[in-house]
Structure formats: structure tokens, C-alpha cells
Amino acid sequence: MIAVQSSIAHLFPVPRSLEVLGEPGPAPDAPVEVHVDPDLPEQGYTLVRDADGTRIGHRDDAGLRYARQTLDQVRADPELAGRAVRVRDWPDFPVRGFMLDISRDRVPTRRTLRRYVEILAAARMNQLELYTEHTFAYADHAEVWARASPLTADDMRWLDALCAAHGITLVANQNTLGHMERWLAHDRYRDRAESPDGFTLGGHHRSPSTLQPTPDNAEFALALVRELADTVRARRVNIGADEPWELGKGRSAADAAERGLGQVYLDHLLRVATPLLEDGYEVQFWADVLADHPEVAEALPAAGLIPVVWQYDGPAHARAALDRATPEQREQWAADGFDMEPLAGGFRERAKSLTSAGRPFWVAPGTGAWNSIVGRLGNAVENLVDAAEIGREHGAGGYVVTTWGDHGHVEPPPVTYPGLLYGAAVSWCLDSNRDVDPAAALDRVVFDGPGLGAALAAAGSVADLVDAPLLNGSVLASALFGSEDAPAVAPEALAEAERVLAGAADALANARPAAADGDVAVRETAQAVALARFAVALLAAGGITALTPAAAGELLHRLDALVVEQRACWLLSARPGGLDDSIAKFAPLRSALARRAAQ
């Protein structure tokens, strides 16, 4: 066998076994033989190319699809095309999914959804979920989605057909307990709230977000899931049920005190899930409540109900953020009832209640894109590998890469791509893809040309460069959106961040990706980099109160121009509904700059 490392790196994902032999490959017109091999694992394939021709063995339709994909890549590679090769390959995780948040203002256009599907197919991911709170056009609830440019039933049926054609399962995803604030804000639904007058979290008053755990509310939530699920062919749904902040603190407080918060949660979960299980659905739900209530894990039904363990900070990044926390932050966490230390244990700690109970589960890491402006690539890589290691160790049936949209989802689609592609690679085969270069993979698989991948990877490195680790976010986003958790950043770190971002901006000015949406991706990425550079400038100035009125005025004009371009870039890939709400997230910063400029 001859090692051809440069060519191996050109295959994506890298196969678990690739032999490059010291003999010629097949002639251009040599036959391709295909046969079923029942001894292969699910979705597995073998590919042999030698002087006699090409032979493909496959376990199932998915294995044949992936074999042909590898064959295309080998034929296109100048070093491998003329060589004899043997490939044997199959995935670590049967389900390799992507979950896109469409409820934090940014609802993608059909063109954008098609692009995501094409990327998922190229990366061998086989499930897509669109996380929904209020952005599906439910028949009897127009007041909730009227201003959101929601996906319609026709949109979902179109997308379902598109996914099916690419070997991808489209899964209906609708939250059913927490994160229902967009519903509870309306008078018609307010009485469904656990705490109709709102609640306090992190020292701030918040609008009601959690349904009261009643049979009527379970029927209400179940009806939403069923209406959405009726638009797709999959017999799998995600009912959310995560982060019910108010649960047991409002109308259910007496019940929780008597029977335990975990039992109250489990009752609501099963009221929604059991009818779906009886209808033949597999039911995913987020497993964060189980981390604090292991008794719930032990009481779950034996089959069909899939806990999805999520964790979005790599263990080392979480440890660094926790070590930098101020006494005031720690006091606030304690006041809110949060034990943050387990985050430094990564997926092993987050899944402990399930592993202790011997319950199967899926893992859900993140792209590191949200709350970041340009991504947190170092954290994403650590988080994605951690999920793959722990998921594989415990036989997890699914690995779902998530991307969220906190604070108005200002990050455009390209910022999600590095984490998405890397997660796809390590969920296919961790051992052979751990060292995949996200930049090179992006240029080959997504952009069809050099430059843009390197710019995205460089920009995504800045969160680590500023040496200000935060949980679930970057100091760059904190600077723009007024987080009180933002730590001070050393001047030399900010100078290095500006240098890297300036280099990314220069690279983008010269990038010419051949992909059909390459021009859109370049413009959206350039806008994200410009916003990040603005955040660096604000941090370097020491904050708004340290600015002279003249300096504040200059930054104000710069921000106004950025907001104009943000609006234009938004409409390149997202629907107009939600745009004003997202742009409004910049209002506090703009007001503060205006006040300082006027002094």
C-alpha cells in the first residue's frame, strides 16, 4: 500500500479505511459492478478500483449513495484517479442530523433551505430539523406568526420532497413546554402560562415562557406537533420540552412541592409524547431537565422516546469560562438555582443521569455560531469531538449538530458552515476525520473554490484570540448587545483580533467562489467580519463611557452604516419577517452611543 496523504485529505468525509495500491487503476471505460453485501454495517459500502474495473458493495440504498459519492471524489482527484484503491467505510452514528433554529427572527428563504440540503447531502448528513416555536403558519393561530414570514405547509411539503430526494429525513420540531414566549405574549394564550406575569432570571424580569403543565396545555401542544408533522413523511418528531425556567415556581408550585419537580415535568412530557408514540412516531426531546432529575430518566418508557443530550461548550472552554467568573456571577447562578460546574465535564457529565440508568440517548453539540458574530470555531471543534467521543462510547443512535439564533440571529448562514461541516465529518467517522481542516473542506465541499473557507476559519478563531472565554457566546457579541458578563480584554489581544479580522476582510475582497451562491456568501461573511471589527473597536476603546463625544459620534455613524448593510444582507438569505425584531437588538447600543456623542 502507498500512502497518498494529500489525496486522502481531498476526500470528504475521510473514509475509515482507504488503501492506495502500487498499481494502476481502471481504464476510463472500464465497467462498474454493483452488488449488495449484507455483511456490511448499515449505510456501509466497499469500493475497489483496479485494472479490472470498479466494484461497489453496499448494505443498503444509503451505502450505495455514499459509495458513488466517494467514487466521484476519487475520479476527480488527480492523484487517485489513475491509482488502484480499496475503500471500506460506514458511519459511527446511524443518524447524523442538523438542527437549524428558525424561531429567533431569521426564517430562511427556500433558496437558503435548498442550499442547506445540498450541503447536508454532500456531508453525508441524513436528518434535518427546523426548530420551531412560532414560525410555522398554524391554521388557527395567525396572530402568533403574522409578522414572522413563517414557513407554510406548502413550504414544508416542498422541503420534505427535496430532502427525500437527497436521502435526508425532515423531522418536525415544535417546542411544547418552555420557550413559548411568542405564544404567551398574546392575550389569547397568556392564561396558559405557568407564570402569566413573568419571572426573574439572571437578575432580570422576563416575559412568561413556559406552559403550565396541565392536560389542556398538553393537548394544545400536541395539536401543534401533529399539524406540523402532517406536512412531512417522517415518523419521527422533536417535541423540545427544554429549559422550562418557571416550572414549579408558578401555578405548579404546590404540585411540585408535593410530588417533586421531576415528576411534574415527566407527567407533561408523557402527556405530549405518549399519543405520538401510540401513533407510531419516535419522539425526540431535549434532555437538560434529566440532568438535574435522574429519577425521570429511570421512569421513561422503554422504547420510542429519545432523550437528546445537548451541550454547547467544549469542556476546556467551559472550564476557562467558569474559572473567570466573578463572585457576582457565581452568586447570580446560585440564586437562579444553576449548578454550572457540570458544564466543565462536557457530554460525559451531561449524560450521567442517562448512562447511570442505562438509557439510550442521542448527542447534540453546536456549531458555536450563535452569540458570536463570526463563530467560535475552537470551542465548536472541541464540543463536536466531545459529543462524538461520548456518543460513540455509549452507543448513541444519533448525533445532531445544532445552530441557534440568540440575540436576533445576526450571524448569516456561512458562519454556521465550519462547525456544521466539521460535525458532519466527526459524526461519520471520528477516528479518520478528527484532523479535518474545516477551511479546506469548506472550499471543496461548499464553495467550490479557495479563499472563503480560510476567511471563515480565521474569523472564527478570534473568539479564542481575545482570551475572554464566555459560556455559550463570544465577547464580541457581548460588546454589541450589552451583556453584563463581558470581561475586560487585554489591548494586545484586541490588536491581534483586529489584525486577523482585517486579513479575513482582505481575503474576502479577493475571494471568487464558483458556487452558485458564492457572491451571497462572500457579502454575508464580509458583513459579519465588519460587525466583529466594530465590536473589537468598541472593546479597545474601553466601552462607551470611556469614549470622547467625538469618538462616540464616529462609532455611531459607523454603526448606522453597518445596520443598513445588515438589513440588505439579511434579505439575501432570510425572509423579511423578524428583520425589524433582529435589528432592534442594536437599539440599546445605538442609544448609548448617541447619548455619549451628544454630551
Task: Please provide a written account of the structure.
This protein has 599 residues and is an alpha/beta fold. It folds into three domains: 5-89, Chitobiase/beta-hexosaminidase domain 2-like (Chitobiase, domain 2); 95-312 and 361-447, Glycosidases (TIM Barrel), CATH 3.20.20.80; 456-598, Four Helix Bundle (Hemerythrin (Met), subunit A). It contains 28 helices and 15 strands. It has an eight-stranded parallel beta sheet with strand order 14-13-12-11-8-7-6-15. Strands 1-5-3-4-2 form a five-stranded mixed beta sheet, with helices on one face. Helix 24 (491-510) packs antiparallel against helix 25 and helix 25 (518-540) packs antiparallel against helix 26 (549-573). The termini are far apart.
Q: In total, how many beta strands?
A: 15
What portion of residues belong to β-strands?
5-15%
Q: What does the main sheet amount to? A: 8 strands, parallel
| Secondary-structure-derived class | alpha/beta
Number of helices: 28
Strand arrangement in the largest pleated sheet: 14-13-12-11-8-7-6-15
Q: Which whole number gives the mean pLDDT?
A: 95
What count of domains describes the coordinates? 3
Computed over alpha carbons, the radius of gyration is: 25 Å
Low-confidence stretches: 1-6
Distance between the termini: 74 Å
**Form type:** globular
| CATH superfamily descriptor of the largest domain | Glycosidases
Percent in helix: 40-55%
Q: Under CATH, the topology of the largest domain is which?
A: TIM Barrel
Highest-level CATH class of the largest domain: Alpha Beta
- CATH architecture annotation name of the largest domain: Alpha-Beta Barrel
